[in-house]
């Protein structure tokens, strides 16, 4: 069965973005970028890949799910379909105008359950925090690019999900000279 993988950059204190949604404090360049462009290259937006003369490897993800607020900043600068190399699903509580190739989902939990039953590569949960909080029971694996910064406040990794401890077991932690640590956790279902 396919896994739902929450792959996201995060601060030391658990924020995936600044309070205004900005994420420019996260390190993009550095020796950790070999992981971003290599094994996790499917999660690079197509306009970035094109600018670098690269193509998505098509080895890790074939589907992306994201919240409306994750899609919106790209749309505001003319990027209506950031991941056309993936099947794109966007959570929205109301009808919106979206680019061809993007499917709106009103019930993310039901949609993810259905997607997990399909054949294919893993499903990338791109963000944001509120959607991750709503999907926490469906998340099979966390891949966190932990950056060496404390934000103090911002958008939490799991939004404002209610208190309900869930166990994830660390399976790898790769530190880089840049200060970034790529951590991978697997959900423990027996707890």
Structure characterization notes:
- The protein has 191 residues and is α/β, with parallel strands linked by helices.
- It has five helices and ten strands.
- It has helices at residues 33-37, 46-51, 68-76, 108-117, 129-134; strands spanning 4-10, 15-17, 61-67, 87-91, 102-105, 122-127, 141-146, 155-156, 168-175, 181-187.
- The strands form two sheets. An eight-stranded mixed beta sheet has the order 5-4-3-6-1-7-10-9.
- α3 (68-76) links the parallel β3 and β4 (87-91).
- The protein starts with a strand and ends with a strand.
- The relative contact order is 0.25.
What brief labels describe this structure?
191 residues, alpha/beta, eight-stranded mixed β-sheet, two-stranded antiparallel sheet, 5 helices, 10 strands, 19% helix
Count of DSSP strands? 10
Tally the helices: what do you get? 5
Please state the overall shape, judged from the principal axes of the Cα atoms.
globular
Low-confidence runs:
none
Structural class: alpha/beta
Strand residues, percent: 25-35%
**Cα distance spanning the termini:** 20 Å
Please estimate the helix content: 10-25%
Rg value: 16 Å
Mean pLDDT: 95
SSE order, one letter for each helix or strand = EEHHEHEEHEHEEEE
How is the main sheet built? 8 strands, mixed
| Order of strands in the sheet with most strands | 5-4-3-6-1-7-10-9
